[in-house]
Amino acid sequence: MINDGTTEKSRLSPYMDQVKSGWKDVWVGLTFYTDLNNMAELYNVLGNKEKRQLYQSLTDKFGYLFDETCWNESVAN
Description:
mainly alpha
């Protein structure tokens, strides 16, 4: 048996194997955003200003990319 994304005759698989959204998944996006924030905070605590700024800049850019990819203004109104 293989993971083919179906419930019939398929091996059990985690969430991401079952969802056919590719990388355009809100749950994955928000998890990635949280991870970027956590890395910025980690490097802040460690005193590594350069790495903190790198992860903070990625965090700052990600909000725009997330909105462009996952937000549908016509549905929100």
